[in-house]
């Protein structure tokens, strides 16, 4: 079992920055997803067990950075140059097996534990 607790959401103006945190109960492959009102949950970024491998959706590449502090068992999502279309509830997710993500990193079904979500609102 993996417990996940997100924090760091809030309201920011377009062009601003936020950092989301996800504290986990143990280290495993982790991802961030987001869900805007009326839309399906979508992949944002993911990071390997050691932190050496990172993956991004095209929509956030170059603006968002995923990282992890394994001593704290915490994964971060650094979000820069935020746009109104980034407004969503952001969820961290864990692949507790550590290999399911290879079936499709963007596929929600490959992540078996989810956090409660944190709201990010970007005003224009």
Topology:
Elements: E1 4-7, E2 10-13, E3 18-24, E4 29-35, E5 42-47, E6 54-56, E7 64-69, E8 74-79, E9 88-95, E10 113-114, E11 118-123
Parallel strand pairs: 2-11
Antiparallel strand pairs: 1-3, 3-8, 4-5, 4-9, 5-6, 7-8, 9-10, 9-11
Question: Can you give keywords for this protein?
Answer:
mainly beta; seven-stranded mixed beta sheet; 11 strands; globular
Task: Report a brief summary of the structure.
This protein has 124 residues and is mostly beta strands. It has strands spanning 4-7, 10-13, 18-24, 29-35, 42-47, 54-56, 64-69, 74-79, 88-95, 113-114, 118-123.
Walkthrough of the structure:
This protein has 124 residues and is mainly beta. It is globular and about 40 Å long. Strands 2, 4, 5, 6, 9, 10 and 11 form a 7-stranded mixed β-sheet that branches. The chain has strands at 4-7, 10-13, 18-24, 29-35, 42-47, 54-56, 64-69, 74-79, 88-95, 113-114, 118-123.
């Amino acid at each position: 079992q993996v417990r996940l607790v997100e924090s760091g959401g809030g309201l920011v103006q377009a062009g601003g920055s936020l950092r989301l945190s996800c504290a986990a109960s143990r280290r495993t492959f982790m991802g961030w997803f987001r869900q805007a009102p009326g839309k399906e949950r979508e992949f944002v970024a993911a990071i390997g067990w050691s932190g050496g491998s990172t993956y991004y959706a095209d929509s956030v590449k170059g603006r968002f950075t995923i990282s992890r502090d394994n001593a704290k068992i915490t994964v971060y999502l650094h979000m820069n140059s935020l746009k109104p279309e980034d407004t969503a509830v952001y969820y961290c997710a864990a692949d507790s097996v550590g290999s399911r993500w290879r079936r499709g990193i963007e596929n929600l079904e490959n992540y078996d534990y989810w956090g409660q979500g944190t709201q990010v609102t970007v005003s224009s």
